[in-house]
Specification:
- The chain has a single domain (27-241), classed as Rossmann fold (3-Layer(aba) Sandwich).
- 48% of the residues lie in helices and 9% in strands.
- It has helices spanning 27-40, 64-92, 113-135, 174-186, 197-207, 210-220, 227-243, and strands at residues 46-49, 95-100, 141-148, 191-194.
- Helix 1 (27-40) packs parallel to helix 2 and helix 2 (64-92) runs parallel beside helix 3.
- The chain is globular and about 50 Å long.
């Protein structure tokens, strides 16, 4: 343990990092990039699906193209990346597939139908794939589902729950989420929700009747928590249109 003012000493390692630009929403791009990775780096043993976008519009105001983009990036991309890298993992019976979903893949809220649908899809894909690996007795391939609460990255800037509840459920720091996810991956944990209160919300949603869930959401201020975020996105869009003379 480092003393006050000391930094943790890390062993010197000659690591090499490779970066590639890839539109994960386009399967041809994913497959061609995966082939480049295999040729230039080698086989991938840990796959982390973390790409995510949000449209920030109410359903009836959202262009169809943005809805399709949300589904392609947040959900469909998981199919393409997994199909690209899973065959070698199966051959070696070794690997780890990590799905970074969201708490909105376990329970939903108003105003972000496309995002919730895409994250529910990602969770369903991950769970089905995990069962398939178990059925095939490929115990060397691990899976971890990561479902964080609101992360302070600016993606959902403006999202607000009930002000009296906010001190108990503030946006999570990205560094905290990464540490929790890494701990879960390194210990082969099948699922990690952050903060732990999300487990309780998910459990309550699964056992309570819908009207009771609505009451719980209203008490937490979670029923319309995305409305300020959507309003900010709409205002920003209008400002850009005005500047561009549209």
């Amino acid at each position: 343990v480092a003393g006050d003012g000391e930094k943790d000493a890390l062993p010197h390692c000659d690591l090499q990092v490779y970066t590639y630009t890839c539109d994960v929403g386009k399967r041809e791009n994913v497959y061609s990039t995966a082939e480049r990775v295999r040729k230039e780096v080698g086989e991938v043993s840990v796959l982390v699906n973390n790409a995510g976008v949000v449209s920030g519009h109410h359903l009836l105001e959202c262009p169809d193209e943005l809805i399709e983009r949300t589904m392609m990036v947040n959900c469909h991309a998981h199919f393409w990346t997994t199909k690209a890298f899973l065959p070698k993992m199966l051959e070696m019976n070794h690997g780890h597939i990590v799905t970074v979903a969201s708490s909105l893949g376990l329970f939903s809220t108003a105003g972000v139908e496309d995002y919730c649908a895409s994250k529910f899809g990602a969770v369903g894909f991950h769970e089905s794939l995990s069962h398939e690996l178990k059925a095939a007795e490929k115990d060397g391939i691990k899976t971890t589902l990561v479902c964080p609460y609101l992360v302070d990255t600016g993606m959902f800037r403006g999202c607000r729950i009930r002000k009296e509840i906010e001190p108990f459920l503030p946006p999570l720091k990205p560094e905290y989420c990464v540490k929790q996810a890494m701990r879960a991956i390194l210990t082969d944990q099948p699922m990690i929700c952050t903060p732990r209160l999300m487990y309780m919300v998910t459990f309550m949603k699964s056992i309570l009747p819908f009207e009771a869930v609505v009451c719980m959401y209203r008490f937490l201020g979670a029923d319309k928590c995305m409305y300020p975020f959507i309003a900010q996105r709409k205002q920003a869009t209008n400002n850009n249109e005005a500047k561009n003379g549209i």
